Please model this.
Amino acid sequence: MAEAPSHSEKLKSWDRMKVEGFSKKAPVTTPYPFTDIEKPPEFRGIPHINPEKCIGCGACVQACPPDALIMEWDKEHGVKRLTYNAARCIRCARCIEVCPTGAMEPTTRFEIATDNKEDLVEVVEHKLAYCEECGEYLDFTERQIEYVRNILPKEIFDAYALEDRIKLTQEEKMRRTVVKLRELESNVYPAFMLVEKGKEKKGGEE
Amino acid sequence: MVGTKDLEAHFEFECKACEDGRCSKADVESILAERKGLKDFYEAFKEHIRECKRMTYGQYMFVIDREVLPEAVLWWHNHPKFKETHMSTAVGTDERPLNGHFAYMPFLNVQVEPFKMDENYWVFLKVYTPADDPSFPSVAAKLPAALWIEREVKDLLGFKPVGHPDPRRLILPEDFPDGVYPLRKDMDYRHSPITEPRTEYRETPEGTTLVPMGPVHAGVEEPAHFRLFVKGEKIVDVDYRGFYSHRGIEKTGEGRLTYNQVLFLAERICGICGYQHSVSYAMAVERLADVEIPDRARYIRTLLLELERIHNHLLWVGIAAHLVGYDTGFMHAWRIREPVMWLVERLTGNRKQYGMNIVGGVRRDLLDYRKEEVLKVVKEIREGTKKFLDIALNTNTFIKRAEGVGILPYKVAKAYSVLGPTARASGRKIDARLDQATKTAMAYHEVDFKVPVYKEGDVLARVLVRMDELFESLWIVEQLIDQMPDGDIFTPIGNLPEYQEALGFTEAHRGEVVHYVMTGEKNKVYRWKVRAPTYNNLPAVPEMLKGYHVADAPIIIASIDPCYSCTERVQFVDVETGKVKVLTEAEFNELSIKYKGVF
Ligand code: SF4
Ligand code: SF4
Model:
C-alpha cells in the first residue's frame, strides 16, 4: 500500500486552480452550489469529537468562547455527557488546541445548513468511575483515570501512593488521610486533629 | 508648586492602583516630564487635578473634578501646537462595587508630532461622579465629537450630560423601558425588558419634505435609517437613527468570559475589520499583563492587518463603483480582490474571522514556502489594481459622480474627530499605525511607508486616499515578508493584575479602532469598551450631505465606508424569554390594512 502523503505534503500540493477548475472567462467564480467545492486543507471547519479518543476531561468546554460545548454530569446514572452544538460554534478551533488527547478533530466541513436541529449536535457520553470504598460515582470518568495512569511516571505514583487513592471519593480520601495521620504517633498534628487525638487517648486510658 | 503631598491631601477616592505599586503618585514630576504638554496641562488645571499617573507606555491618566471636564477636553482638543489632537472616544464605567462612584473618562489622542509614535501619547481624563448624581457638564455642547458618546453613556449607564444639545435615545431600542441601564453592574446580562415602543424622530423643518432612507442602506446592505429633509432635490438637513444591530457584546464580555475568550468575541464584532479588533484587544491585554510578544508574532500580525486592509479597500472601491452606477468597475474590483481572500484562507484557515490571534502572540506560524505565494498575490494585485484604476479614473460615470461631492472641510472633520481615510481626504494628518505606540503589538515602526493625505475632502479624494494606501500596503507586505524574523510566535501571559486599565488601538482601513480594557478579579474583564471608527465618522455624515442632491446620498454615506454592526456592538437578543413576536400572515395583513396610509 502506498503511504499516505504527510500533512505538510498535502498542504504544499493543494492547488485551488486545479481543484476548482476556473476558466479564463470566469477567473474567480464557480457554479457553486450546483457543484461541490473543496476547501483547502488548512480550512477551519467545524470540529468533530472522536468518541474513541475523548476522555471527558472538559478542557475544551473551558476554552470554548460561545458555549458551543457543554459538559453535564448525571451522577444517578453514572454518566458525564459532552455535547457539541455546531449551531453555536464559531469555528475558532480553540477546543482543538487545548484537547490533550487529540479527540477534537479539525475538519474542513463548512456546509452545516439543515432542516433538523438535531443534525447539528454531537453527544459523547462517558462512564463515570466509582469509588471502590463506598460505591458512589466520582467526578471523573474511567478514561480520565486511565489517562492519568498512562502519563504520570511511576515515581510520582509511588511517592504519593496514588494507586491506592485514585479511585476514591474526596471524602473517602480525607478520611483515609486522617486515619493514617493518627497511626503515626510522632506526627505534629494540626489543631483540629489534636482534639480527636486527645479523645482517643482518653478512651485508651479508660 | 503643588507637590505630591498636596495631591494626596485632596485625593478622596480609594484608588486600587497604588496598592501594587503601579501608581506613580510618588514621582509626579518625573511623569509629567516624560512627554511634551503634560506639564502645561498640569499647571493649567492643578487646582482640579486629583491624581495623575502613567497607565502604561504612552498612556497617562488625570483624575479631574467634573466641573472642569469640558474645559479640560477642549484644552487638549484645541491645543495650538498639537494640531491633530482629537477626542477619540470616552468610556463610562460603573465603579460602584469598587469605590461607590461612577466614572466617565474621555480619551484624547494627543499628537505632538504627526507620525512620531514615541512622542505622541494618550490622555485619559477621568471624572468620578457620586452614585446618586451621575451628572457631568456636557462636552458635546462645545465639541461635536462627544455627541454620540454622551448619548451612549446616558442610555447604557444612566449618566446625565448636563447641557447636551440632543439628548434623545441613541443606542437602546425604541421599546426599551426608561430607567433600566444595561451596563450597570447590578443588571444581569440575560435580562431584557420591553415596553411600548416610542420613536423620537426630529420634526421635519418647515418648508421641507421628508425622504426616509433606510432602515437598510441601499448599497451597503446594513441597517441605518437616514431621514433626509429636502427642498426640491436639495438636502437641507438630516436626522439619523441607527443602532439597529446592537448586540450587547460589551456586556457579555464583562459577564462570563475569560480574557482569552473575549478575544474571539472581539474578532466577531465586525465581518470586515475583525482582525483589527482582535489585535487591538490583544494589545490592550498585553499592555496590562506587561509582556513583550515575540517579534515574529508582531510581524505576522502586521502582515495580516495589511492583507486585510488591501482586500477591504478593494471591496470598498467596488461598492463605490456600484453605487454610482458603474457596475463593471464593481465586478472587476471584486475579481481583483478574490486572490487575497484565497491567500488569507490558506494562511489562517478562513477567508474572514482569521482566528489567528491569541493574547500573547499568534496561533499559526507562517510556513516559509508560503512567502512566495504571498509575493505572487501581491504582484497580481498591484498589476490588477493599476489597470483597474487606469480605466476607472478615466470613466466619466465614476468621476462625475465623485468629484466635488460630499465635501467635508478640515475644520468639520477635526471637530467631529473624523478618522481614517475620510479624515485624510480632508487634510488631516493622522494614522494610528504611526501616531501612537503600536510597537508593542505590531511592526509598523520597522517598515517604511507613506501616509497619503489629500486636501479636497470630496468623495473622489476618499477614493484616491484609499487607493494610494492600497499600494503602500502592498509595499509594506513585501517588506514584512523580506524582514520576517525567526523565533517563537507566542509568549505566555500569566495572571493579569486586578483593576488596571489600558488602551489597545490600531488603524483599520476606515480609521483608528480603540479597545479599552479594565481588568477585574480572576482574569476576568471588568469593563471592555470598543470603539469602531465608523462611530466617529458617521455623525459627520449629515454635515457632508447638506447641500447635495438626494441621488448623491447613497455614495456620500458609503464614502466613509460605514460599518454599522461594529459601530453598534452592543442588542440584547434574548433567547430565553423569547419576547420577540412573529406575526402570522393574517395578523400582518390586518395590520397593513389598519395602518394603510399611515406609514
Ligand atoms: S478536551 Fe478532548 S478529551 Fe477532553 S473532553 Fe474535550 S474532546 Fe474530550
Ligand atoms: S471551534 Fe471554538 S466555538 Fe467551536 S466548539 Fe471549538 S472552541 Fe467552541
Residues 194-206 of chain A have pLDDT under 50 and may be disordered.
